[in-house]
Amino acid sequence: MGNNRKTVLKGFGYLQCDDFAAYLTEMAAKGWHFKEWGAGLIFEKGTPEKVQYAVEVFIDGSEYDTRPDVHTREFAEYCEAAGWQLIDAKRKFVIFKKVRDDADDILTPQERLENIAKEERKDILQKIALSYTWSLLQLLQFTGSGFVNRIFSNGLLMISAIWFALALCATVRFVHYLIWKKKWTKIVDNGEEIYFGLKKNIFSFTNGWYSWLSTGILLVFLASLALSQQYLTLVFAVIFSAPIVVMGYLIARFRPDAGTNQIIQIVVSIALVMLALTFSVVIIFTDNTTAEDLEAVPLYYEDIGGEAGEIKKAEVDQSSSIFGSGMRCWIDYEEEYVYYYVYSSDHSWIINTIWDERMEHKYNQTGEDVTDLFGAVDAVRNVAGDYLVKFQDSVLILSFAEDTILTEENVDTICAALLGSR
Asked: Is the pTM here over 0.85, yes or no?
């Protein structure tokens, strides 16, 4: 039984209706006859035949449709009278098989053009809205204090690049659609032969690019978590992603009606949001300091002669990318706290951007110039007692809970621990 059926993971866009039909015809000629949609295109082994298929876009259908609904079946009754047998339907695609040699066309060329163009345009605009919104959010992440989180993380840089690629592809796809619509409107108006497909056209990727690049975002994110050893977040991300994959498979496999499909997706989405919020709260309020965390701390308050009691919590966050590296360390003592940031890069514009942002954010008050103390390009100590130091290829930020005045000996110790040397 298993050898007589097979599932093919292949997709087509609305502009490829005739490509879709041609593919089904080619499969039938090889003895594989299309039976239905499932978790892909399901074919059944049989006698090779010359079968003509027609794939139409039914605008009264729904993107949530996983099988023919009442409106689709009413449409199919009209088509059956014209010599076409309904095989299956999903989203707004409806697949027919020609059962009479004298079968009439299901739709006029003008109707086909308008239906295909309308749904393609709607799909593109939705993709543009989503990809442009997320691309804008990515750009905003490169402003302010979020700049250092992005620029020193290969994973986050890759995710941003993929979203920008999605936005670019959406734009290219829309331009291609405008050219396509103008071309085929002229062809239909002239009464010429029509074929709605892309075949080996360079734009034939437009149906699958969104899914593949979106999947790429998830894979890059998971890989970046693994490489940075953020295993707890990695486990959560997998747990978070698994229901989406399972839901997609089950919907494709069991094919609920459009209403049920929509409800399932809404309920699962709400559940995942609640899961994410719960995870965030647990992480924020859980003290998970380990011996390894303490060993990773490069500089303690005691190293510069301070006394603050027992350590309550310590966190060290290190990241690196093609543009440099960043290290953030927070230490909570019984009586005091210490935190310091170290950002290193061979690119002067990155160092200058971090310096300018920090100066504007926290060091814009009148402060003490301590450039000579650090032997740096520039250095200040603000009224709160925090230090901001700029070297040729790094920026150092130091903050102490009490009014700590650093000496040259302290600075030597700090630079040796955090920068290797001064």
From this structure: no
